[in-house]
Amino acid sequence: MLHEDRLLPTDPATRAIARRLYAGVQGLPIVSPHGHTDPRWFAENHVFPDPAQLFVTTDHYVFRMLYSQGVPLEDVGVRGIDGAASEVDPRQVWRRLAEHYRAFAGTPTRLWLDYSFETLFGLTERLSPDNADHHYDVIAESLQRPEFRPRAMFERFNIEAIATTDGALDDLRWHERIAASGWPGRVIPTYRPDAVVDPGFPGFRDNLAALAELSGEDAASWSGYLAAHRKRRAFFKAHGATASDHGHPSAATADLSTAAAQALFARVIAPNPCEEDRELFRAQMLTEMAAMSLDDGLVMQIHAGSFRNHNPLVARRFGRDMGADIPTQIEYVRALKPLLDRFGNEKALTIIVFTLDESTYSRELAPLAGHYPALRLGAPWWFLDSVDGMRRYRQLTTETAGFYNTVGFNDDTRAFCSIPARHDVARRADCAFLAELIAAHQIDETEGWELARALAYGLAKAAYRL
Amino acid sequence: MLHEDRLLPTDPATRAIARRLYAGVQGLPIVSPHGHTDPRWFAENHVFPDPAQLFVTTDHYVFRMLYSQGVPLEDVGVRGIDGAASEVDPRQVWRRLAEHYRAFAGTPTRLWLDYSFETLFGLTERLSPDNADHHYDVIAESLQRPEFRPRAMFERFNIEAIATTDGALDDLRWHERIAASGWPGRVIPTYRPDAVVDPGFPGFRDNLAALAELSGEDAASWSGYLAAHRKRRAFFKAHGATASDHGHPSAATADLSTAAAQALFARVIAPNPCEEDRELFRAQMLTEMAAMSLDDGLVMQIHAGSFRNHNPLVARRFGRDMGADIPTQIEYVRALKPLLDRFGNEKALTIIVFTLDESTYSRELAPLAGHYPALRLGAPWWFLDSVDGMRRYRQLTTETAGFYNTVGFNDDTRAFCSIPARHDVARRADCAFLAELIAAHQIDETEGWELARALAYGLAKAAYRL
Amino acid sequence: MLHEDRLLPTDPATRAIARRLYAGVQGLPIVSPHGHTDPRWFAENHVFPDPAQLFVTTDHYVFRMLYSQGVPLEDVGVRGIDGAASEVDPRQVWRRLAEHYRAFAGTPTRLWLDYSFETLFGLTERLSPDNADHHYDVIAESLQRPEFRPRAMFERFNIEAIATTDGALDDLRWHERIAASGWPGRVIPTYRPDAVVDPGFPGFRDNLAALAELSGEDAASWSGYLAAHRKRRAFFKAHGATASDHGHPSAATADLSTAAAQALFARVIAPNPCEEDRELFRAQMLTEMAAMSLDDGLVMQIHAGSFRNHNPLVARRFGRDMGADIPTQIEYVRALKPLLDRFGNEKALTIIVFTLDESTYSRELAPLAGHYPALRLGAPWWFLDSVDGMRRYRQLTTETAGFYNTVGFNDDTRAFCSIPARHDVARRADCAFLAELIAAHQIDETEGWELARALAYGLAKAAYRL
C-alpha cells in the first residue's frame, strides 16, 4: 500500500528533487515535543491488549468518523460512563472498522493506519471486510511478541525524546518509574494546568484544594496560588519537562494589576463565577504563566479555539474527548496583545501558538510571528495535521514568517503506533513543499537540504529546548 | 472550444489517470436534487423564446458580471418593476453579451456558456462581437426545432431526476400536469417555506393567511401553524418531494419550550416584530422542520449566509434575485448547536448544510459533518460552484470529513441549458481531485473509480433519497 | 541566482506557455499607481547613502523579520526616537542582514533582494556571512556612479508613471521641483488625508488648523472643512494626482444627514472624542470623499484593516511604521453598504478596495466587485504581495469577479530598488496563473496574451486614469 513516492509532487522533475530531500531526512530521529501518549506504557512495558484497543477504541480520529457514518460508539467498544453495555469482542470492533474503512479514503487517519499496518505488521493489502479477520489475527499475534511492547516500539520508532501531557496535579509517578528503571528512553512530562487554571473545568475548586495539598501553599490566596504553580512547574522541570501547555477556549490574555488579579481570583474561587470572570481569569493566567516561563525557562504552548464536548449526548454517555470537539472562529491580534505588550519583546521567552482556524495563518499568526521575538508558530494542529493541511500551513505562513519562526512538527497524539506515520507524513509534506520552491527557483537545493533537516528535526529540538 | 482534457490536471501522468476516471462517469445520468428550473417548462413543453432570454436576461450570473462592467440591466432586457423601458430586441441584448464576453474569461459562466453553445448548437468559435449575429441566428433557429423543447432537452441531458424549488404556498399545478401527462421525466418539488417562516419576508402576514386557507389549519395559533406545515409537507411529498430547503440569513437554530415558542409566534405574527424575534423565530423553525423531517423523511437543506438584495437601487427598480446577493461571514458551531443537541445524533435524519464562506469548510463544517450522524456537507454553493471552488472544497473538507459525509453535486440553477455543463465541470473537477490523490498514492485507482461514481451519481441519489 | 524560469509552473508544458506569455510582458513599462517612494529623491537626484540605508534600515519588511529572529532594531541602524544609541556603521548592519539571510528563504523579500543584487549590481552569489563584505563593497561603489542616482534608476526601471503617497497638508514642493526641472519622469502625488480625517491620528486638531491655514477655509465648520478638502484635492490634481488613498482601521462607511454630520464633526474636533464618534467620522468621510471623487475624478483607494503600531515598546522607542502593523479580521459587506447605497451604481466613479484578510476574497470582495459598477478589487496588499499570495488572489477572485474587475499590480513600496523586482514577480505570477488556465483549456492562448498585457500594464493604467 505504501508507495515510496507517496505524498511527493507529481511533476517528475519536482518529485525527483523531493525524493532527494526526503532521503536526507527519512531516517532522522523523531523529536516529539507535544503529544498525549501514556507514560505508564513505558513505565510498565506491558503488552498492548488487542488490535481494536490499539487502533479503534482509543483513537478519537477513528471513532468520530465511524460515528458520523452511523456507527454507535458502543459498537466500537467505547465504554459509556452511564454503564450501558458496549461491544466487548475486539474482533467485532475490528470488523466494523473494516466495514467502514472506505469512509477514511483521503483522510490522514487512513495514511496513518495503512502505514502502521504495513510497516509494523507487514500487511500490504488494504483493510476490507474480506481480510478483516486476517489482519486482526496478524496484529493480535504480533502484539504478543517482545518487539511490540512499548519500549521496543519506542526504540524501533527511533524516538529521541517524547513529551507527554500531564495535569498540574499529576504525581508523575510513571515518569519517575521510567527514570528509575534505567531504560534510556527519554519520556518527559509537560505542565498542563487547565484543571487548576480554568474556573469552568469540572471540579475546579477541588482541584485547587489538591493543588494546595500537593504544593504546601495556600492556594486560596492569589500569591499562594501563584507560588503553588511555581512549585509544580519546578517539580515538572525536575522530572524533565521543558514546556507547559495551555488549552483554552479562546486566545484571550490579560495583564491586570496585582490588586485586580487578587480580586478576580477571589471571585473565581467562589461558587459559580460568571463566564466573563472565568474568561478573564484564564486570560490573566496565560500572562502569569509567561512570567513564570521567563523565570524557569519552560517553553509555553497555547492551544486555543476548540469548542470542547460540543455534543451533550455523547458527553453525558461517554465523557470528554470523544471526538465531539469542534474548532471555532478565533481572534489573536487583540487577544494576545496584553501578553505581548508585556513579554512579546523578550528573546529569552518562547511562546508557541497553535490554531484550528486557517483564516488566521496569513492574516494574524504569520504577521505576529514575523515580528515578535517571543512568538513562534506551532505545527498544523489536530484536524489540520494532514497532507493538504500542512501544505496550506506552509503556503500561508512562509512568505510572511519564513521557516525559522516555525517550530517543526509535533504529532500531538495518543495513538502510539501513528507516531512514525505522522512524522513521515510531515517530512514528506515539507519535502514536497521545499521541492516546489526549488523547482520554481525560489530557493536552491542546498538551502532545501538545510531546511528539510530543520523542519524534520532541528527546529523542534531547538524551540522546545530538547 | 471544448478540449477533451479541459479542467483535468496538467501533469501528463495525473491527467491520464483523470481521463480514465472521467471516462467512467462522463455518461452517468444526471441526478439534480436541488435547483431552480421552472416546472412549467416541462408541463407545457413550449419553445424557449430566444437566445437572449435563454442565456442572458434570466441568468443572474451573466447579468451581474455585465452590470459590474457598466452595462445597465435595462440594456440586457431585464424588465424593471418601475415600468421603465428596457431593451426589447433580443439581438441587441445578445450583442451586448458578445461585446463583454471577455469579462467572463476564467469564470464558470464562461465554461457553462461555451459548453452549451458547442454541445447544443454546434458553435465551436468563441462568442465575440464579430460572430455575435451568426451565433444568435444559429441558436434562434435551433430553438424552434422539436429537439430543443424542454422535455427533449431533459431527455438529451440524461436527467434521471430533477428537483425544483417551490414555495410552501405553491399549488404544484405544473408538477401535477407533468405527472398527468404520462411523460416519464421525473420532476419533483422541494418544500421551501421561507415566505411563511421568515417574519421579514415581504407579505409574511398575508402568506400566513394563505397558508391557513390552503391547509385548513388555524395558522394564527402555534399548533395550527405547525400542523399547516405538516400538511403542506405531506402535500409536497405526495407530489414526489424528498426534501425541504431553507434559505436563512444566518445558520441560527433554537430549541425553545413550547410555551416560549408559542409566545414568540404571537410576537412575530403581530405587526412589526423586532429583528431579534424574527431571527429567533427563523432559528426555532429550523428545529421544528428537523422534527418534521424525522417524522416524514424529507431531507433538510440549509442554505444560510447570503445578504439578499444588497443593492437598494437595483431592488427598487428590478426586484429580488437580480445579482445583488452577497455572501457574509457566518458561524455554524454555536448556531447549529440547539438543533444538533436535539437531533444531531439521529441516524434517520439528514441535514445538508451549505456555505458561502469557505473559511468554515475546514474550521467548522468538516469537523461537524465528520462527527454528527445527521449532518452532511452540501456541494460548493453559488459563487463557489466553480473549478477552483470545487477543488478547494475537496481540499478543505476531505481530510476531516472524508467523501462519504458529502452528498455529491447539485447544480442549483434556473439556467436550464447550463445543467449538463455544470455537472460536467463537477465530474471533471472531482476526477481531477481523485487523480491527484491517486498520483500521490493516497488512494489506489480502484478506490478512485468507486469514489468517482459516488461523487458523480451515487451520493446525491442516496443522500436525497431519490 | 535568478533562473529565467523562476516562479513559473513546474509542469513542462505549462511552463512553456507561461514563458511565452511572460516574454510578451517582461519588457512593458512599469505603471506604479500606488506606492511610498520619496519624491525628494527625484527632485534632488542625490546619491543614495549606503547599502544598509538602501536595503535594510528603511525597509520594514526586512527589519521586522530580523527583529522576529532576535536582532534589536538598534543593531540594524534604526534610530530610536528616545535618543538611544543605534548602530552607525552601515557595514555592521549589512553583516547582520547577511548573518540572518536564511530567515528570508521562501519570502518575497528574498526574491526582491536577490533580484536587486543581481540585476543592479551583478552579484550572482547568494548573500551570506562569507560574501557580505564583498557584496557591501560592490553595492557601495556602484551607488556612487551616476547610473545609480534616483532619476537614472527611474529610467532604467522603465517607469512610465509612479504615484507617491502624500499627506493632505503636504506642500508638494518636491513634485513641483520635479516638474520645474524639465526632467520628463512622471512622478505624481496621491491625496492621503488620514491625518485630517482620522480623529485618532496624532495631532488631529493641529492638523485641522494647518488645513485651515493652507486652504483659507474655516476648517472648524463642517462646510468649511469639506471645502478645504475640495481645495486640497484640486491642488493635488493640479500637480498630477489621479487618486486619493484612505488607510482606515476598518472598512466602515456612513451616509449621515448634513445635520448629523455637522453635529458629529463638532464632537470629533472637540477634545477627546469617543472611539464610536471617531469611527463614525472616518466612516462618514469615506462617503464624502467618494462624493468629491465623483466631482473631481480622483480614483478612490481604501486600504482598511491594519492594526497599526501593535507593539507599544517599539512604537515608544522607534515610532510608527516599524514593522509592527498586524492585519485584523475585517467585514466589508455591511461596512461598505452606506457608501455603495449612495454611489455603488455610479459608472463614473472608481473605488478600489484592498484587503489583508484573504477570507474576504471569495466571500465578500469578489461578489461585491462582480456586481457594483463603481467597485474594483485592488492588488494583493502588503503581506499578500507574494507569489503564493498572488496565486490565491487570482484563484479566489477570478471565478466570481473575472479579471476586468481587478486593477493590475501596484508595488506599494518605499524600497525603490524593489520596484522592478516586485513588478517582475507579479508578471511572472500572473503569467503562471494564466498558463494554468490555458493548460486546463479554460481560456485559449490568444486570450491569455491579451490578459497578460492587461494585468501587467493596461488595467492599472485604465483604472487609475494614468
Account of the 3D structure:
Three copies of one chain form a homotrimer. Chain A is globular and about 65 Å long. With 466 residues, the first copy, chain A, is α/β, with parallel strands linked by helices. In chain A, α17 packs parallel to α18 and α18 crosses α19. The longest helix of chain A is centred in the middle third of the chain and has 22 residues, at 275-296. Chain A folds into two domains: 12-47 and 155-463, Metal-dependent hydrolases (TIM Barrel); 48-148, uronate isomerase, domain 2, chain A (Orthogonal Bundle). Chain A is built from 20 helices and eleven strands. Chains in contact: A-B, A-C, B-C. The interface between A and B is large, with 50 and 47 residues.
Number of helices of chain A: 20
Strand order of the largest sheet of chain A: 6-7-10-11
Shape of chain A: globular
| Poorly predicted tracts of residues of chain A | none
CATH fold naming of the largest domain in chain A:
TIM Barrel
Radius of gyration of chain A: 22 Å
CATH C-level of the largest domain in chain A: Alpha Beta
Helix content of chain A: 40-55%
Q: What's the main sheet of chain A like?
A: 4 strands, parallel
Structural class of chain A: alpha/beta
What is the tally of beta strands of chain A?
A: 11
Strand content of chain A: 5-15%
End-to-end CA span of chain A: 34 Å
Q: Name the quaternary structure.
A: homotrimer
Q: Would you identify the CATH H-level superfamily of the largest domain in chain A?
A: Metal-dependent hydrolases
Mean pLDDT of chain A comes to 97
Specify which chain pair forms the largest interface.
Answer: A-B, 50 and 47 residues
